[in-house]
Write a structure and sequence with these properties.
This protein is of the alpha+beta class. Helices cover 36% and strands 31% of the residues. The chain has a five-stranded antiparallel sheet with strand order 2-3-1-4-5, covered by helices on one side. A two-stranded antiparallel ribbon has the order 6-7. A hairpin with a 2-residue loop joins strand 6 and strand 7. It is elongated and about 70 Å long.
Length: 120
Amino acid sequence: MIVLHLESCPMPLRGDLTKWLWEVATGIYVGKVSTRVRDKLWERVKETRKGGRAVMVFGTNNEQGFDFRVCGEVWEPIDFDGLKLMMKPSVGRLAKKKKSTLTKTGFSNAAKYRNAKRFR
């Protein structure tokens, strides 16, 4: 059995998911599918989520009895001695992540030369 939680998902994705899963609440899908179908659904969710968040929880044969996948979340799944946990990122780690994803701000070289000529 799988549980899939989506936030800010496009309507075509919701239609695709309702072919395989039941929508029990807005953005929450539940169903029992094979491993192959589950993996294909997850790939489809990752491709079409458009900036939203997605969390899938499914049953497995491990110590916890379940596993999960996360996409578009600031919290990160980590493996801690065989247990899968969610790690809240530190402030420094978030700053690094934002710095690497943001584009460089400021003026272009052409604008700098133009302003230098103008203010001579």
